[in-house]
Amino acid sequence: MAIEFTDCTVRFGQKTALFPLTLTLGERRIGIIGLNGSGKTTFARLINGLVKPSEGRVCVNGLDTAGDAKAVLGEAGFIFQNPQHQLIMPIVAEDIAFGLKNRGLSAAEIEERTQAVLARFAVSHLAKRRVHELSGGETQLVAIASVVVTAPKILILDEPTNQLDLKNRRLVEQAIAGLEQQVLVISHDLGLVADFDRVLLFHEGRLAADGSAEETIRHYHGIAGC
Question: Where does 68-197 show beta strands of DSSP type E?
Answer without folding.
Answer: 76-79, 154-158, 182-186
